Amino acid sequence: MSRDPGPGTRTNTIGHPVERMLNASARDILDALENGFRARADLKGKLAELFMSRHLDELQRADEVERYEWFDQDGVPDFTVWLTTGRIITIEVKNVRSGAGSLRVETQKTRASKGDPMSRFYRADQFDVLAACLYNRTGRWEYLFAKPVELRRARTDARYLEPLQPIPSPVTAPWHERLLDTLS
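The chain above was modelled as a monomer; its predicted structure follows.
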């Protein structure tokens, strides 16, 4: 009978660059994730971006996207995308909220800068497309897309997006199932 060694026992060799960087096996890293709510939320956000890059790869193969760049910087949208039409767009990826009830996507940053309570909010003109990842509700890395300028605005300052955006079911404008439909 095989016994799970538990989080205190190292079980793998360290080969992947992330394992070497952290001096921890993949199993150790996964055990830490299992016990860290914030780490899991951060990882889901990064996975939503990873799977969006794969979606953009598919759109490249379909000759709808010429190329794209993926960024990991505060204050910069997650992706800049060059469409085959010559248009350049920016995309911000966010996860929908988990749990029961209506479908909603959180459109605020994790932290605010000191002295500026609005710094947690995104301006409606800060990126061209919001990609709402459905994983938390469906278990699939699929997306719905909307132009932020068409979404609800913050009550305190209309230049900014409301922190929670509803997504209607069935999906209707301003939400779309295809990225390019969002732009037309």
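The two ends are 59 Å apart (CA to CA).
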